[in-house]
Amino acid sequence: MKFATVFVVLAAVLGSCYLVTAQTHNYFFGARVPYDTLVNQTTVIQSSSFLRVKSLNVDYPLKGQRGRNITAIYVYDRLGGGRGGYASITKGGIGQNSTRIHLKSQRGNGMNFQVEIYGR
């Protein structure tokens, strides 16, 4: 009986550790609907620096371009393993014709994001 209890507790701890390391930091703002088109796709790759946090802003539309009404913003963390960074919208966004997305790495890690912006 005692062996079974120890086994169950050990399995639960190992299972939760696996879930933590398998996390990705994907972000989905808004929702795609029929007739939405991909208006901007940006890939951001930065290498890691020892004990440093890296950050970068992705702006839409680019200077000189006319923005379309944004319906969805998808940010995919392609680094994986729980080492990826974080994304947040700091300006504009869904229902607007412009946006600024702030990307930030975890301390000591790089970043590898794919940002997709959909609109009409």
From TrEMBL:
InterPro entries assigned to the protein according to its UniProt record, in alphabetical order: MBF2
Keyword Hydrolase: no
A UniProt-annotated Pfam family: MBF2
N-terminal signal peptide: 1-22
Keywords: Signal
Name by which UniProt lists this protein: Salivary secreted peptide
Gene source species: Anopheles funestus (African malaria mosquito)
